Amino acid sequence: MIEFSQRVQRTPRYPFSGAHDLPEDMVLMASNEVPDAPLPSVVAAIEATLGKANRYPDPTNHALRRALSDRFDVPAQRIAIGAGSCDLLMACGDVLLEPGAELVYAWPAFSVYPYLEAATGATGIRVPLNEQHEHDLDAMLAQITVATRLVIVCNPNNPTSTALPLDRITRFLEAVPRHVCVLLDEAYCEFNTLDDPDASVDLLAKHPNLVLLRTFSKVYGLCGLRVGYALCGDGRFVEAVDRIRQPFFCSITAQAAAIEALKHQDVIAERVERTVVARVELESALNELGIEPAASQANFCWFPLPEDGPDEAAVVKGLADRGVLIRGGTGQGREGFLRVTYGTPRDNARFVAALTQTLGR
To answer: What is the pTM of this model?
Structure first.
C-alpha cells in the first residue's frame, strides 16, 4: 500500500458548497459569486482566444500586468498574477513559511489560511475576532515574534463581512516589524464603502513588506476563469512566487478576460451600488426576524441564528429544501452562524421567505 506524506494528513478539506450537482432552479447564495454574467465584450475577448488554444499562454502575463500597472500606477515588475488569489496565497506560504516559522491570522477568516501552515509545517497562530466580528489588530500585534514570517489581514473579512478603516490598517502596518510580510487580503475591497478601495495602494510606497492580494473572481465576476493578482511593495516577492509555481499558471482565456474586464469600471461601480442596496434591504429583513447581522462591507452577510430556533444544520437543510443554498458557519470557523451571499432582488426575496419559514417565524 502506498504511503502518503504527513502534509496530506494534516491538510483540511476545503468546505465546498456542493452547488454543482443541484437542480437548476436552486438559488445559489453560498459562494460569494456575483449574479451578473460576464459582459458581452468580455465574452468576445474570451472567444477570440479559443483559436489560439494550441499555444501556451504568455508565462510572464505581460499584457495583464501592464493593464494592472496602468490601472493602479504600480510598476509592472511589482505585480504578480495567479490562477485566482488562492494560487498566490498558497505560493506566499511556500516562499515565506517553513518548520519553525510562524504565521499569524485572525479567526474566523478565509478557510484557506489554515492550508498554509499545513502545507509548510509552520506554526499557525489564530487570533480571535472581537465582539463586532472584526480583526483585533492589537491582539495580532501582540502575537508577532522574531519567528513570525507572515501576518494575514482579510479586509473585508471572509466569512464575517466586516472591514476595518484604512487608518487602522495603516497604524497596524507602522507597528509591524519590517521582517514580517503583511498580506492584506482584499478580495472584496471593491464592495467596501469605508474608504476608497484604491486608497490602500498608496501604502505600498512606504511598506516594502506589504502585499495587497486581489482577485477578478468577485466584483468582476470571473471566478470560473481563475485569475487573481497581487500588488507588492517589493518586486522580489513577485520573483519568489513565480519561481516556485508551475509554469503557465494563468490561461490565455483568463488573461484576455481580465484585461477586458478592467476597462469597464463603470460597470463595477453599478455592481457595487446594487450590492449596497441589497445589503441594506437584507439587513432590514433580518432585523424584522430578530436577527442582527454583522456590519457588512462585502457582497455577503454574516449573522447568528436565534437561540430559540432550529440549530444550524437544520436551518441549512431547511433552506436547501426550499431551494436556497447558503453556507453554514461551522465550516467557516463558528458554529451557529450563516453566511449568505447577496443575489438578485428575486434571490434575496426567496431567501428571506425561506428563512422565515425555516425558523417558524
So the answer is: 0.95
